[in-house]
Structure formats: structure tokens, C-alpha cells
Amino acid sequence: WNFVVGCFGEGSKLKREISRMNRDFRKKSWPVKAVGWRDSAGGVSMYLYLIRLIFNVGVLVILAAGFIIINNTLVVNVLSRTQEIGTLRAQGASRAYVSLQCMIETFALTITAGIIGCILGIIGANLLTGASIEFNNSFLVQLFGEDVLIVHTSAMRILKSMVFAMFLGLLGWIYPVKTALSVNPVQ
């Protein structure tokens, strides 16, 4: 076996480029085949890829559980203020005003929690990188891509995290607002 390793520029479609190369190889009757790095690395690569996928799914499950807990907290907060909301509605507050009040509260909590989360994430990443945790196990070296644990943070990741937090805040705002708007002013 002989291998020639190539690197495509960022933004190029790897599968499309591989199929184009294989078409060119067949036209020229060359006995070669282009494959992606996962295919060429074999079973170990797929195993590591699946482990990373399982870790990412675990993170999504934790995020979903946290979202449910926060959403339930917001609903309990709205339900505990039924008299206040009813009084506001009886005094002429529109549904839009009550909705806006709940939205402002939710986004204030979301922005605060997002900023605190980003700050704690940056501190944690710097502490982990500064600890210079070395991997002696070849599986861990392959899983993390290096023999020393290095955690990278960037302004783009922080921005994406804040946008994601705002999206979750918006999503978490919908049900409590529906609950608040269902309050009858007579109650």
C-alpha cells in the first residue's frame, strides 16, 4: 500500500472532491482510489468518532434536562404571580404588555446566565490547559488529538454560545408566557 495525503482548503466539500478525484482516476485508468481520512484510518478511527458522538449526545441530553428544569422554574414563577398578573390585566394591561414583561425577565436571566457561563467556561478552559494534563494512554491521545489536554476558546465560540443561550431563552419564554396570558383578570 502506498498513500498520498492531501489537504483541501477550508470550505471545500470533501465528499464532492473525493468523488471528482475518483472519476478522474477511472478516466485515466489509474489503479488508485481517493478516500477520506476516516476511511483510510480504519476501525480505530470509526471507534473514536463514535465515542466523540456519544459524548456530544450526552452533552445534548444534559442541555435538554437543564432546559426542562429552567422552563419549569419559569412556569412556577409565573403561576406564583397569578394575582399580580390578574391585577395588571384588570387595570388594563394588554396581553402584549404582560408578554413583554415575562420576556424581559426571561432574557435578563438568560443574558446573565450566559455571561456567567461563558466566564466560567473561559476560566475552566484556562485552568485545564494550564494544568498540562498529559495522556499516557494511546487511546486518549487519539481521542483528544494530542498527548496534552489543550482546551481552546475563541470569541466566535463565545458568541455562538451566547446566541444559543438567547435561542434557548426565547424557546423557554414561550410556554410561561402562554401560562401568564391564560390568567383571567377575574381570578
Termini gap: 79 Å
Low-confidence residue ranges: none
Shape: elongated
- Secondary structure tally: strands: 0
How would you sum up the major sheet?
Answer: none
Q: Give helix % range.
A: over 70%
Strand content: under 5%
Number of helices: 7
Taking all Cα atoms into account, the compactness measure Rg is 26 Å
Order of helices and strands: HHHHHHH
Would you tell me the overall average pLDDT?
84
Structural class: mainly alpha
Walk me through what this model shows:
There is one protein chain. By secondary structure, the protein is mostly helical. Helices cover 73% and strands 0% of the residues. It has seven helices and no strands. It has helices spanning 14-27, 37-41, 43-80, 82-90, 95-130, 138-144, 155-181. α3 (43-80) packs parallel to α7 and α5 (95-130) runs antiparallel to α7. The N and C termini lie far apart (79 Å). The model has no long low-confidence stretch (mean pLDDT 84).
Fold topology:
Elements: H1 14-27, H2 37-41, H3 43-80, H4 82-90, H5 95-130, H6 138-144, H7 155-181
Helix pairs in contact: 3-7, 5-7
Summarize the structure.
The longest helix has 38 residues, at 43-80.
Descriptive key words:
mainly alpha; about 190 residues
